[in-house]
């Protein structure tokens, strides 16, 4: 198992220069002080009798070992290295603090330390908990308490003192190295840092495949949250990671992804499957704060919230149960939109090769596919061709006329206007093609798209898109029109001499979008395409 490993910064105590200068320092003298002997006794009693006895809470026994060990270890380390100066002893303190901090903050460091202790026949069972770093506060206090003893000259009973020191050294070394040995050398499973997690609550090993959403997927989290199991098709998820999940162990539901489009999502989704696991989708709020989840949760222990526990069910399948708010969704049939008319993707507006400028329209070639080729000439360059896809009967210009072409911002609109008015004519013709979410101002009118709330979402399982039909809301002064696929045309009066003819082409409101394959706009929400033709009133 490979848990997430966030970058945390360790805090280390400041060692005050409490030792007197001019005297040779001997850390071994601290091993016979009441403070050191008391800490050693507490370490032995706590690790070999109190832990697991049920007399004290497990959180308290764990902290007692940390505080006692950080009093015992630094001067014991200095004694073994036979240090004789304050800087050398300070390095011993820093070394102990660094190792202690590393194994609390890093799964790799904890595994490495356990393996190193295993080489000497005493592997550690380490439970990482960053809150244990509070025990570092005892180190500067111990430094100050031991300072007077380390330089004291005491030649009386030298032999007895040496024997006692050797005994204390051996006992302290054995207690420090052998602290918290694993029972029967069982495997150790590191904690994971996660917002949501998956736990094997059974007594059997599982193989679990986790597949995250692809970076190209955009989604409206509020809409998809109504039923992620139906609205997120299989094609929305990318390649997965196959986990070997031993009994009673835990993994993070998703891995860190540095892609900005993924980080910007307001929700997270993961597809879960396995040989004996009914496929499901985990879906949760991205605002959840990450926290440390135990790498191994025993049957009698309570599991944190925002996780899914897999337990043995009927037959060969495993039952899934949320620990807290709803997190997992069984996969169900994708909705097809009901009785509403689905948006027609085949008749959408498009254009290519039409550049901003003034031209003579020298030829128009209408194709069978609903597109036309326009041959355009200028006074200073060779003729060029452009292509325009729209209902041909709505094109208001003929060969030989001069037109000006303007492309609207983001290529979401195209305007073709009559460049030279006929004698005695005050109103020229204009053709506006509009697509996407931006609706350019046309004759001072306002336009917007709106989803048809009476229609259900429809999901395309191949190119993941979830959408429902949308309508066009158009207002001009005191006049308004609502257009959709069933009522696609309307005519409004701009002024007594000018009328505006509207034609609805396409409308869809999207809650899920695969930007790598979907046609049209890459933005969520209502996408409307329509034509507007300004011409003299009849």
Summarize the helices and strands and which ones pair or pack:
Blueprint: H1 34-50, H2 58-81, H3 86-105, H4 107-119, H5 138-150, H6 158-177, E1 192-194, E2 197-200, E3 206-212, E4 217-219, H7 221-224, H8 228-231, E5 241-245, E6 250-252, H9 260-263, E7 267-274, E8 277-285, E9 291-293, E10 307-312, E11 318-322, E12 328-330, E13 350-352, E14 357-366, E15 371-377, E16 384-389, E17 402-408, E18 413-418, E19 430-434, E20 446-451, E21 458-460, E22 465-476, E23 479-483, E24 489-495, E25 498-514, E26 525-536
Parallel strand pairs: 2-10
Antiparallel strand pairs: 1-9, 2-6, 3-5, 3-7, 4-25, 7-8, 8-12, 10-11, 13-16, 14-15, 14-17, 15-16, 17-18, 18-19, 19-26, 20-22, 21-22, 22-23, 22-25, 24-25, 25-26
Structural features:
538 residues; alpha+beta; Immunoglobulin-like; 3 domains; 15-stranded antiparallel β-sheet; 5-stranded antiparallel β-sheet; elongated; disordered N terminus
Could you explain how this protein is built, in words?
The chain is of the alpha+beta class. The protein folds into 3 domains: 27-185, no CATH class; 192-330, Immunoglobulin-like, CATH 2.60.40; 345-536, no CATH class. Helices cover 22% and strands 31% of the residues. It contains 9 helices and 26 strands. It has helices at 34-50, 58-81, 86-105, 107-119, 138-150, 158-177, 221-224, 228-231, 260-263, and strands spanning 192-194, 197-200, 206-212, 217-219, 241-245, 250-252, 267-274, 277-285, 291-293, 307-312, 318-322, 328-330, 350-352, 357-366, 371-377, 384-389, 402-408, 413-418, 430-434, 446-451, 458-460, 465-476, 479-483, 489-495, 498-514, 525-536. The strands form 4 sheets. The chain has a 15-stranded antiparallel sheet that branches. A 5-stranded antiparallel sheet has the order 5-3-7-8-12. It has a 4-stranded mixed sheet with strand order 6-2-10-11, with no helix packed on it. The longest helix has 24 residues, at 58-81. The radius of gyration is 37 Å and the shape is elongated. The N and C termini lie far apart (77 Å). Mean pLDDT is 80; it is low at 1-22, 156-160 and 180-185.
């Amino acid at each position: 198992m490979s848990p997430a490993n966030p970058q945390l910064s360790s805090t280390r105590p400041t060692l005050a220069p409490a030792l007197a200068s001019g005297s040779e320092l001997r850390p071994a003298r601290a091993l016979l002080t009441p403070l050191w002997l008391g800490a050693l006794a507490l370490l032995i009693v706590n690790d070999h009798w109190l832990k697991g006895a049920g007399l004290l809470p497990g959180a308290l026994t764990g902290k007692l070992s940390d505080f006692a060990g950080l009093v015992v270890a630094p001067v014991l380390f200095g004694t073994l290295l036979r240090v004789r100066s304050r800087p050398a002893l300070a390095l011993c303190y820093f070394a102990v603090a660094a190792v202690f901090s590393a194994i609390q903050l890093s799964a790799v460091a904890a595994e490495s330390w356990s393996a190193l202790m295993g080489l000497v026949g005493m592997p550690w069972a380490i439970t990482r908990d960053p809150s244990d770093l509070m025990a570092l506060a005892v180190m500067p206090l111990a430094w100050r308490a031991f300072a007077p003893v380390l330089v004291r000259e005491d030649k009386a009973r030298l032999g007895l003192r040496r024997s006692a020191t050797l005994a204390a050294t051996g006992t302290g070394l054995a207690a420090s190295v052998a602290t918290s040995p694993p029972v029967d050398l069982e495997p150790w499973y590191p904690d994971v840092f996660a917002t949501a997690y998956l736990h094997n609550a059974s007594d059997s090993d599982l193989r679990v495949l986790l597949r995250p959403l692809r970076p190209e997927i955009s989604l409206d989290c509020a809409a998809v949250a109504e039923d992620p199991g139906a609205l997120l098709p299989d094609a929305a998820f990318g390649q997965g990671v196959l986990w070997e999940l031993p009994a009673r162990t835990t993994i993070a539901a998703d891995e860190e992804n540095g892609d900005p489009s993924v980080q910007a999502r307001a929700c997270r989704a993961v597809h879960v499957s396995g040989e004996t696991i009914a496929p499901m989708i985990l879906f949760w709020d991205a605002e959840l704060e990450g926290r440390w989840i135990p790498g191994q949760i025993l049957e009698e222990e309570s599991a944190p919230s925002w996780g899914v526990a897999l337990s043995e069910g009927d037959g060969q399948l495993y039952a899934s149960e949320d620990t807290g708010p709803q997190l997992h969704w069984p996969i169900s049939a994708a909705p097809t939109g009901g009785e509403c008319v689905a948006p027609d993707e085949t008749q959408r507006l498009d254009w290519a090769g039409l550049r901003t400028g003034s031209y003579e329209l020298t030829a128009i070639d209408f194709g069978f596919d609903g597109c036309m080729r326009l041959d355009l000439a200028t006074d200073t360059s060779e003729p060029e061709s452009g292509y325009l896809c729209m209902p041909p009967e709505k094109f208001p210009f003929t060969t030989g006329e001069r037109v000006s072409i303007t492309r609207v911002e983001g290529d979401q609109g195209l305007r073709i206007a009559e460049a030279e008015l006929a004698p005695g004519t005050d109103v020229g013709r204009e053709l506006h093609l509009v697509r996407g979410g931006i609706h350019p101002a046309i004759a001072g009118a306002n336009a917007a798209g709106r989803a048809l709330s009476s229609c259900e979402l429809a999901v395309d399982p191949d190119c993941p898109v979830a959408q429902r039909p949308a309508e066009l809301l158009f207002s001009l002064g005191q006049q308004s029109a609502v257009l959709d696929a069933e009522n696609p045309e309307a005519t409004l009066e701009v002024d007594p001499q000018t009328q505006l003819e509207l034609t609805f082409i396409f409308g869809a409101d999207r809650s899920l979008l695969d930007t790598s394959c979907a046609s049209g706009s890459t933005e969520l929400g209502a996408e409307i395409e329509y034509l507007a033709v300004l011409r003299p009133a009849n």
